[in-house]
């Protein structure tokens, strides 16, 4: 009985295997080995991802564990991991990323190439991360918030303000059946419905 418990304890210490694994012939997702160059949609458990024979990109908000042999990477959404001739390359869709292992965090813009070493991961001039695993995540961009603030400052028009500020909007009305303000049409119910709403300041 004690002999049977030893393998279980060893497996528990190593932790569960990653659902996605880079192999010599391609990328294995669960029991499927992807070898082609075309990127296709797959699922690792309940996590959707794009995968080819040399590329993995997580489409989920959760972190995806990817096995690189003796090492692992925890891949965040919006990050693409590709195998290169001498290592791996991480890239985003134009946003910066963070690379973290233990208490050390590296940050870079859009892309970072690295090699697996005995101690961990070598990112060249960017630095190194020690350990058997690191986490890569996309950093939130502040561009949408800045753009929203500029648009708010430029357009200060509000229908609830007593005086109109900012841009002045002009409206032109074209009447196909004649001017409703003409005395000949004023008594018509259709003409009355066509008269625009009048406000105290004369604005539409």
Structural class, judged by helices and strands?
Answer: alpha+beta
Q: What proportion of the residues is helical, as a percent range?
A: 10-25%
Following the backbone from N to C, one meets helices and strands in this order, namely: HEEEEEEEEEEEEEEHH
Secondary structure: number of strands: 14
Structure overview:
- The structure is a single chain.
- This protein is of the alpha+beta class.
- The chain has 2 domains: 9-140, no CATH class; 162-204, no CATH class.
- It has 3 helices and 14 strands.
- The protein has helices at 2-14, 143-154, 189-194; strands spanning 20-23, 26-29, 32-34, 40-44, 47-51, 55-58, 64-67, 72-75, 80-83, 88-101, 104-116, 120-122, 128-130, 133-138.
- The longest helix has 13 residues, at 2-14.
- The N and C termini lie far apart (87 Å).
Keywords:
204 residues; alpha+beta; 14-stranded mixed sheet; 3 helices; disordered N terminus
Ordered list of secondary-structure elements with their pairings:
Blueprint lengths: L1 H13 L5 E4 L2 E4 L2 E3 L5 E5 L2 E5 L3 E4 L5 E4 L4 E4 L4 E4 L4 E14 L2 E13 L3 E3 L5 E3 L2 E6 L4 H12 L34 H6 L10
Parallel strand pairs: 1-7, 8-14
Antiparallel strand pairs: 1-2, 2-3, 4-5, 5-6, 6-9, 7-8, 9-10, 10-11, 10-14, 11-12, 12-13
């Amino acid at each position: 009985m004690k002999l049977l418990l030893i393998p279980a304890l060893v497996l528990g210490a190593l932790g569960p295997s990653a659902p996605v694994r880079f192999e010599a012939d391609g990328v294995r997702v669960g029991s499927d080995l992807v070898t082609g160059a075309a990127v296709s949609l797959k699922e690792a458990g309940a996590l959707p991802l794009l995968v080819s024979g040399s590329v993995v990109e997580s489409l989920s908000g959760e972190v995806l564990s990817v096995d690189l042999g003796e090492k692992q990477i925890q891949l965040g959404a919006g990050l693409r991991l590709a195998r290169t001739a001498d290592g791996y390359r991480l890239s985003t869709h134009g946003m910066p990323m963070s690379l973290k292992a233990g208490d050390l965090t590296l940050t870079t813009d859009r892309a970072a190439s690295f090699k697996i070493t005995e101690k961990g991961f070598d990112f060249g001039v960017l630095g190194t991360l020690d350990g058997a695993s690191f986490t890569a995540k996309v950093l939130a961009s502040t561009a949408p918030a800045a753009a929203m603030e500029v648009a708010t400052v430029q357009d200060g028009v509000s229908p609830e303000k007593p005086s109109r500020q900012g841009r002045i909007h002009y409206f032109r009305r074209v009447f196909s059946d004649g001017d409703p303000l003409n005395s000949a049409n004023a008594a018509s119910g259709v003409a009355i419905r066509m008269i625009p709403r009048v406000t105290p300041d004369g604005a539409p």
